[in-house]
Design brief:
The chain is mainly beta. About 0% of the residues lie in helices and about 35% in strands.
Length: about 425
């Protein structure tokens, strides 16, 4: 969206009169030029030390996220509902169909919390370290699947149903077996990318924990982004190698056969996961590299051909890495954020619609959180930083796009379960 603004005394007075509720700035990137006015921030709640936590939203429009080692619940008007103290460094919450909330911490421990904020049960793993996003996935029968030192399945009451630890992993001893997180198909199949030494294993598990199939991938050995499931059951996920080597985005059939593989442009790593537009187009962002800025891409789902690239920019010397997946609104607008403190809104042709630069507001960055959108067009975004918090942003998107996977972990509940 571009505006040509004629500087007159009237326009200056008008700009001053709305400065309390609008944020404006100039942009001169290659996609757009000229000054513009950003959408209004409806409200914000400054909470201090935020976690790297994406939000979840229930059917009752209660918003859940992590801050200060607590799981928090807020209404969509910004009213505090409850808090529940759990483990340190909580990850992103997930909701089941009964309204229960599940969340892991950086040591992969799992906590179950009721919709009124009471801890129901926990399962301790206590790994000494963890890398990547650790989130449960919810199966069609309501079971909860996580990874840590094994792949685990629980029912909603906390009973462990099974665990999966491949025999070839016993050589390495108890360890974090993946930096990714599980995804569940509509038929209950559990998909996970594991990483034994110098390779990736794409594994499909039956609902009873037995192995359905697994495929060895030898040209990558690290995966942070989780699996996205397309309308036809195609599995999309990234894979990384070493510095200076190519990094990849893969598409596999639901039976474990390779459909296509592309190299990420400019030797950029991919840490995000794929989101899917209404026409099937795939959207994903990359980290920056020494040679190039981060890139947000649109791709052909049939062969991985890149339709267009949107180049982000580094601000104040801060990297512009894209870590989180895009959220696609019902009107087709694509939202994603960078480590450079900018939340972008793009049209589906790759042109920029608007942006918000959060470091001009409170020094925080939305680059580690994926937003949710309600049916009234309010988008909710957490911002990381010492003065981080929760923001509600007015958009024209009345909910999520009607696609197989319009956002991180597919829906506002972050279920991680496919609809195909």
């Amino acid at each position: 969206m571009k505006y040509l603004i004629r500087i007159t005394w009237i326009s200056i007075l008008f700009a001053i009169s709305i400065s309390a509720i609008f944020v404006s700035c100039d942009r001169d990137d290659e996609n757009n030029d000229g000054p513009y006015i950003e959408p209004r921030i409806a409200w914000s709640e400054i909470l201090g030390d935020m976690e790297f936590s994406s939000l979840a939203m229930g059917a009752d429009n209660i918003i859940y996220f992590a801050a200060n080692n607590k799981l928090l619940a807020y209404t969509t008007s910004g009213m505090f509902v409850w808090e529940c103290a759990l483990g340190n460094n909580l990850e992103s919450p997930v909701l089941d169909q009964s309204g229960n909330i599940y969340v892991q911490d950086k040591k992969c421990n799992l906590y179950a919390v009721s919709s009124d904020g009471q801890k129901k049960w926990e399962f301790k793993i206590d790994l000494p370290y963890s890398i990547g996003y650790k989130m449960p996935a919810i199966g069609p029968e309501g079971n909860v699947y996580i990874v840590g030192d094994s792949v685990y399945a629980f029912n909603s009451e906390g009973t462990k149903l099974w665990s999966y630890f491949p025999e070839e992993y016993h050589y390495f001893g108890p360890m974090l077996i993946t930096t990714s997180t599980p995804t569940v198909g509509s038929d209950g199949t559990v998909y996970i990318v594991l990483h034994p030494e110098h390779q990736l294993d794409l594994v499909a598990l039956n609902q009873d924990g037995t192995e359905k199939w697994h495929t060895i991938i030898t040209d990558a050995y690290y995966c942070v982004g989780s699996i996205t499931i397309g309308q036809d059951g195609t599995l999309y996920f990234p894979g990384e190698t070493g510095d200076g080597d190519p990094h990849y985005l893969y598409a596999y059939t639901k039976n474990g056969d390779l459909k296509w593989r592309i190299e990420a442009p400019y030797l950029n790593r991919i840490r995000a996961s794929v989101s899917i537009g209404e026409d099937g187009t795939l959207y994903i962002g990359t980290k920056a590299s020494d040679a190039h800025e981060a890139v947000f891409m649109a791709l052909d789902p049939d062969n991985g051909q890149i339709y267009w690239e949107f180049i982000t920019e580094r601000t104040h010397g801060v990297p512009d890495d894209i870590y989180v997946s895009a959220t696609i609104g019902k009107d087709g607008i694509i939202y994603f954020s960078c480590e450079n403190s900018i939340l972008y809104a793009l049209n589906n042709d790759g042109t920029e619609e608007w942006r918000i630069t959060f470091d001009s507001l409170n020094g925080g960055t939305p680059g580690f959180s994926c937003p949710v959108i309600d049916m009234n067009g309010l988008m909710y975004q957490t911002v990381f930083g010492s003065e981080g918090g929760l923001y509600a942003i007015t958009t024209d998107s009345k909910g999520l796009a009607n696609t197989p996977w319009p956002k991180f972990r597919r829906n506002n509940a972050n279920s991680g379960r496919g609809s195909n």
